């Protein structure tokens, strides 16, 4: 049975941790039996961990989880909790007397919303693992999408809610899925119509759109590097090598470009991982897999903002969600 989520890919589970103290959290994709992994970084302000080992030139052949987290660079601490959870279950690469779990990670900036001293830590990563299930994950403002916002080129006060979303597609017996945490500086656009769904608002509070404002001569607010970022995981049950996984991650960014405008900016650290579980027992054409990866990435971006909820409360900016407008 398909659920139109990354969990339609056999061999993985997804868990969220959402911090009750402020809008932040983390999300983990567990592949305890190991998966080939590639990565492609397109934004100018990335925050990542364990990405170099994913190069085809480097030795480690598989990963055991991928972590997506809020909290800016502080959120990379959550990967330690994922490692601990996996180590307790005997999962990892055998290195001498130890098993070392391999957990690449990427973070987004959500310190705009609430107490910036609260961010995902090792306990948060551990809790996300404990919550992991093979069923379709929750979407919207949960996990790494808890504090996500979009449309911030003219300031956070004119932005809207982002979130996390998932989607999948199956073609010729091969499934490709995506889990995307959308925290873009730019707007989220429906590729089918070109209509902004969530993004920069005008002084009247209505959705205006970043590109429309720029074309009208409005200048961006002073940009702080690393103040946004969309991150995600693409997965397939096809058998991959590391070079193929890297190419699929690269092509998946086409989906971000279809659904986010502008994307890959100086304030974004846009990073996508690609996993191959091999559960289908066969290979598939890399170009086909990359095209499907771009499609599910775009769909997951739209689902993220459509599932989002408005943000308001003491110490928080008031930001509507797509459903409010």
Characterise this structure.
The protein is of the alpha+beta class. The protein has one domain: 4-Layer Sandwich (L-amino peptidase D-ALA esterase/amidase), CATH 3.60.70. It contains five helices and 16 strands. Strands 1, 2, 3, 4, 7, 10, 11, 14 and 16 form a nine-stranded mixed beta sheet that branches. Strands 13-12-15 form a three-stranded antiparallel beta sheet. A two-stranded antiparallel sheet has the order 5-6. Strand 5 (93-95) and strand 6 (98-100) form a beta hairpin. Helix 1 (78-88) packs across helix 2 (122-130) and helix 4 crosses helix 5 (286-306). The longest helix is centred in the last third of the chain and has 21 residues, at 286-306. The two termini are 34 Å apart.
CATH architecture: 4-Layer Sandwich
The CATH homologous superfamily is named L-amino peptidase D-ALA esterase/amidase
CATH topology: L-amino peptidase D-ALA esterase/amidase
Overall body shape: globular
Cα-based radius of gyration, to the nearest Å: 18 Å
Estimated share of beta-strand residues? 25-35%
- Structural class computed from helices and strand pairing: alpha+beta
| CATH C-level | Alpha Beta
The count of strands amounts to 16
If helices are DSSP runs of H or I spanning 4 or more residues, what is the number of helices?
Answer: 5
Helix share bin: 10-25%
Kindly state the mean pLDDT as a whole number?
96
Catalogue the unreliable spans. none
Characterize the main sheet: 9 strands, mixed
Report the end-to-end length measured between terminal Cα atoms.
Answer: 34 Å
Q: How do the SSEs run, as a string of H and E?
A: EEEEHEEEHEEEEEEHEHEEH
Number of domains: 1
